[in-house]
Amino acid sequence: MWPFRKKSRVAPEEPPPEITIDPFLGDPDARRLSMHLGNRDWPAARSIIMNPDPALQGYYVGIASSKSGLMEWIDDAVSADPDPTLPLLVKGLGAINWAWDARGSGTASTVTEEGWKLFRQRLVVSENCLDEVLSRDPRNVRALAGLITLAKARSKGLAEIQRCFDAVIAVEPADERAHGRMLQAVCGKWYGSSEMMFRFARERAAAHPGTNLGGLIAEAHIEEWLSRKREDEYLEQREVRDELVAAAENSIWHPAYRRTPYTPHVWNAFAMAFCLGDHHAEAERCFALIGDDLVTRDPWYYHGKAGRSFLKLRDYTRYHLAKG
Predict the structure, then answer these.
(1) Which segments carry the region annotation Disordered (predicted)?
(2) Domain boundaries, the chain
């Protein structure tokens, strides 16, 4: 059965097999980085993170900071590194994940007093590290973007999050991760509304053609779909389809577009938005780019197991294209 009401009428009898999502998206250096971090080999990890491409460097910092067990040993790397700016950055970002581990994934009412205490203490660790990084390198985009996440974790409100976002784009106007975090902040489930979310997405995408920021439009429509209890009829609207096509043409289909480590996430967002709206030809263009190797967990996990949801929706698209 398809996991969507209207699609259950045409489901094949055999469910599709499950696909394994590669967290490294086929990047052998990312896989080696994770291995070195697991072995607590900071010099080897550092050599991969310090890629001359700033986009790859930021991507590898993200992998390092989310590595399980990082906080057990990263202080040794900070002490041993002749220039501790990088390990401090990784520690500062990792401490935010560490704080959420203490809080847990449940609602606020399920967090124990000790959990809240650890949560706050670990966010202070993050703040101190990121402040130290910025004292050494005031234009460090990853540290500046980390302050957006930190402000959100501390429930500082939209004004503070906006201030942190403005600091990022003053250095890197089209930074993808900072824009994604800001989009979440201005959506209705956080500090904003549908109107604020779409205004932000449209303004930022229009300001930076040929970049991944067009993907903000797809993400905004998925957020709106979620807020409407996942009614596919919303995404089927002609005006929604037209805006998604225009956003893709201004982004991943733009002649000046250049792929970045974040590109697969944008492809997957557009693929899901097009597919749920029954825009099959446009969805297939995205599915063809993704293949089997560049599937991301987000946004497919909104339907349960991400790999299975991806395959079901891709099969749904191709079933209808074959029907003509």
Answers:
(1) 1-25
(2) 26-172
- Look up residue 187 and give its amino acid: C
Q: Angle, nearest 10°, between helix axes 85-103 and 141-153?
A: 20
Specify the pLDDT at position 104.
Answer: 74
Give the contacts of 137 (CB within 8 A, at least 6 positions apart). 85, 143
pLDDT of residue 3: 46
Q: Which residue has the tokens 């596919």?
A: 232
Q: What is the DSSP letter of 161?
A: H
Residue pLDDT, tens place only, 185-209: 999 999 999 999 999 999 999 999 9
DSSP class of residue 70 equals: G
Dihedrals phi, psi of 135, to nearest 5 degrees: -70, -30
CA–CA dist 55, 45 (Å, integer):
17
Q: What angle do CA 165, 239, 289 make, to 5 degrees?
A: 70
What contacts 159, CB < 8 A, 6 or more positions away?
none
CA separation for the pair 65, 60 (Å, rounded): 9
